[in-house]
Amino acid sequence: MDADGVISTVRDEQATELDRLGSDKALIAATGATLETDAVREAAATREHALASALDDWSDEIDGAIGAAFAAAADGAAERARRLDAPSGAPDAFGEHLGQVTGTPERVGAGLVAAPLVLDRFYLQVVSFFVNEADERGAALARELRTAASDLEEARNALGVLATEDREQVRNTAVEAIGVAYTAYADALTEMGLDPKPIC
User: Radius of gyration (Cα) for the chain, nearest Å?
Assistant: First the structure.
């Protein structure tokens, strides 16, 4: 399975979870139903800070193309956090999960495959929030951040140098990480008396 095959498999296997992570309840879960500009920016900054921290730590532990991929992705997350111009709160469940991942294939799966897929869905609702607020500048920034956060180029770079047998572990760990993000989302909504499943 090549790099794009790994990514496609993860996306397909977690299609339901990713779809719900991008639902109109995403920001309710992320902000504790505080749907205000500062709270939305802080939720986004919190995610980016946690991702940048994990990736930066990993880049210090490995050389070569994979270390470079971690470093580039860390720089990207840090820059997005800077552009949000908001304080960072305590890491959410996904951020905490990243801090506990060990092993190079596992870190590629969680930090370079799962994180962009999860952030793509999160920023979809950040864009919608600013559009609904008639904040054109905020919406434009959110669109730019979504494009950058969902970029899987570093995942492809890292997967390209991993052994074939390691790519299966990348897939497994990416699926697991998305599951952590979804469980946290579902639990947050359930605690508020909301159904995380879409109403058909």
Answer: 16
Average pLDDT score over residue span 35-57: 96
Answer yes or no: is 169 within a domain.
yes
CATH number at residue 102: 1.20.910
- Helix ranges (H only) for 93-152 are 93-100, 104-107, 115-132, 136-149
**Residue 61 pLDDT > 80, yes or no?**
yes
Domain-located, residue 124: yes
pLDDT tens, position by position, 4-23? 899 999 999 999 999 999 99
Is pTM beyond 0.85? Reply is: yes
Helix ranges (DSSP H) in the chain:
3-13, 15-21, 26-31, 37-59, 64-84, 93-100, 104-107, 115-132, 136-149, 153-161, 164-191
Residue 179 forms part of a structural domain: yes
Q: How many domains does the chain have?
A: 1
